[in-house]
């Protein structure tokens, strides 16, 4: 998501949410971008509380890898069954 064009993200996020595909949001911030708090962006995008959101510069390989790792971590957490509970 480009924080300079947040409105352009609504259609894509809507399609992803409707499809049921797990996702993470990568905020691609540039020096001339307006700064928003994470809370403002989550509220604006109507994100579910568990949706990962990371800030990155897509031109930076390391930052892009970090964004992908956030998505993979989220996917693993969603598919890993919880540990069994002990009964006494």
Structure description:
The structure is a single chain. By secondary structure, this protein is mainly α. Helices cover 43% and strands 9% of the residues. The protein is built from three helices and two strands; from the N terminus they run αβαβα. The chain has a two-stranded parallel sheet. The chain is globular, with a radius of gyration of 15 Å. It starts with 8 loop residues before the first helix and ends in a 9-residue tail after the last helix. The mean pLDDT is 84.
Gyration radius over CA: 15 Å
Gross morphology is globular
- Low-confidence spans: none
Mean pLDDT across residues? 84
Tally the helices: 3
What is the H/E string? HEHEH
Name the strands of the widest sheet in spatial order: 1-2
State the total count of DSSP E strands. 2
In angstroms, what separates the terminal alpha carbons? 49 Å
Structural class assignment:
mainly alpha
What proportion strand?
5-15%
Helix content: 40-55%
Main sheet specs: 2 strands, parallel
């Amino acid at each position: 998501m480009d924080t300079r064009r947040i409105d352009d993200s609504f259609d894509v996020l809507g399609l992803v949410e409707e499809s049921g595909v797990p996702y993470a949001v990568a905020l691609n911030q540039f020096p001339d971008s307006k700064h928003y708090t994470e809370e403002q962006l989550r509220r604006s995008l109507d994100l579910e509380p568990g949706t990962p959101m990371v800030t990155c510069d897509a031109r930076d390989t390391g930052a892009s890898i970090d964004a992908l790792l956030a998505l993979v971590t989220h996917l693993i957490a969603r598919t890993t069954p919880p540990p069994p509970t002990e009964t006494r």
